[in-house]
Design a protein that fits this description.
The chain has a single domain, classed as 3-Layer(aba) Sandwich (Uracil-DNA Glycosylase, subunit E). The chain has a 6-stranded mixed beta sheet. The protein is an alpha/beta fold and 235 residues long. It is built from 10 helices and 6 strands, in the order αααββααβαβααββαα. The protein is globular and about 85 Å long. Helix 2 packs antiparallel against helix 6. 43% of the residues lie in helices and 12% in strands. The structure holds uracil (URA). Uracil (URA) binds next to helix 5. The site of uracil has 12 residues, from helix 5.
Length: 235
């Protein structure tokens, strides 16, 4: 049927249709799909992950801990920071980096005009290792899928790994922090791709204050990357 005949026909049956002579592209991809990245979507996913972690069985870390230490900060931040594991203060409060190392981390963030309202912080393991020992390889392997899921949910653009435990867990055991720090690594974690940088852990910097100059260089690199990626973190 010609277009004008179709119009008459639809007028007769009282159907309001407008015709276009354009062909229909049935193979057109749906490019309108947007990654929904809002806090309201992330919160239920984070709650589910927390439940998953809390349901771990036969874990010495969990059995000896007072509280699970999940995360702190802004789930919508483009900068996620990963430490090693909770210490005594964190175990008591259920929040990462609230002890002496945490105070130094706050100062480091402040030096590049950041704070806990505009970054997101977690750890390789979510329960305090007894006597503040380093988590064992088995423990790291056990918690790694949770950490990767956590990173996927937050979907940051930049990941800062503090210290060798976080570096080795996420980048590999063949790298050492003194050599790998201050270098950008483009990495895929789960289904997201992000810019990763390692730096010294604040607890190490408290023991070796002469190394703070290197941490400062790393922090400046983060600030520069944020500006290159047009990341605004003024929360
Ligand atoms: N050290 C860490 O690695 N994480 C914390 O949460 C506290 C101290």
């Amino acid at each position: 049927m010609k277009n004008y005949k179709k119009k008459i026909y639809h007028k007769l049956i009282n159907n309001k249709v407008s015709y276009s002579s354009k062909t229909i592209d049935r193979y057109k991809k749906n490019n309108d799909k947007k990654v929904i990245n809002t806090v309201s979507v992330k919160i239920p996913q984070l709650e589910k992950l927390k439940k998953h972690i809390n349901s771990i069985k036969n874990c010495d870390l969990k059995n000896n801990a007072t509280n699970m230490v999940f995360a702190d900060g802004n789930p919508n931040s483009s900068l996620m920071i990963i430490g090693e594991g909770p210490g005594a203060n964190e175990d008591k409060e259920g929040k990462p980096f609230v002890g002496r190392a945490g105070k130094l981390l706050d100062k480091m963030l402040d030096a590049i005009k950041l704070n806990r309202k505009n970054v997101y912080i977690s750890n390789v393991v979510n329960f305090r290792p007894p006597m503040n020992r380093r988590p064992t390889d088995e423990e790291i392997i056990r918690y790694l899928p949770f950490l990767k899921k956590h990173i996927e949910i937050i979907n940051p653009k930049i990941l800062l790994l503090l210290g060798s435990t976080a570096l080795n867990a996420l980048v590999g055991n063949e790298v050492v922090i003194s050599k790998a720090r201050g270098k950008w690594i483009n990495k895929k974690i789960g289904n997201i791709e992000l810019e990763v940088i390692a730096s010294f852990h604040p607890a190490f910097l408290m023991r070796q204050p002469d190394q703070k100059k290197h941490a400062w260089e790393d922090l400046k690199m983060i600030r520069k990357k944020m500006s290159d990626l047009k990341i605004k973190l003024n929360g």
